Amino acid sequence: MRQSVSAGRIVDVSSAGTLSDATAGGIEEDAITLQPCRQYVDLWVTVSEQEIADALVSLLQHHSKLVEGAAGCGLAAFRQLALGGQLEGRQVVVVCCGGNVALPVLQGVLQTGVVWH
Q1: Tens digit of pLDDT per residue, the chain (117 long)?
Q2: Cβ contact 43:86 at 8 Å
Q3: Would you put residue 64 in left (φ > 0), alpha (ψ -120 to 50) or beta?
Q4: Is 26 helix (H, G, I), strand (E, B) or coil?
Q5: More exposed terminus of the chain, fewer Cβ within 10 Å: N or C?
Q6: 22: closest CA among 115, 107, 88, 100?
Q7: How far apart are CA 71 and CA 45, in angstroms?
Q8: How far is CA 64 from CA 21, 39, 51, 53, in A?
């Protein structure tokens, strides 16, 4: 979506495997989401697969909440911006929902993710 918003039109972008299937791309030509994203998204934050895994295991460890990779993206982006000092003085909400995680994916995340302290 980031590339499509930048181009002002839907761009066909290939995507590799990711923990966040819901944000991997594949925007349909007649999608209605492009215009709202162009209008309302102020900042696009790119996070790594490791940051997503770390977010998932940290949320599970500290809050006993299991979420899917797309929710991990929001939490990882929040942490990235917070550590960079970009959220100082702001009120921020991170929505973490969706629990569509396949067991093999969860097992991999539990082995590679690092819990934040």
Answers
A1: 888 999 999 988 887 888 998 888 778 888 899 999 999 999 999 999 999 999 999 999 999 999 999 999 999 999 999 999 999 999 999 999 888 888 999 999 999 999 998
A2: no
A3: left
A4: coil
A5: C
A6: 100
A7: 14
A8: 22, 35, 18, 15
Instruction: Report how far apart, in Å, the C-alpha atoms of 25 and of each of 11, 12, 35, 111, 116 are.
Output: 10, 8, 16, 26, 28
What pTM was estimated for this model as a whole?
Answer: 0.89
Closest CA to 95 of 58, 64, 117, 68: 68
Tell me how many degrees the CA angle 17-4-105 measures, rounded to the nearest 5. 20
DSSP 33: S
3-state secondary structure 97-117: CCCCCCHHHHHHHHHHCCCCC
Neighbours of 28 (CB within 10 A): 8
- Copy the structure tokens of residue 56: 């998932």
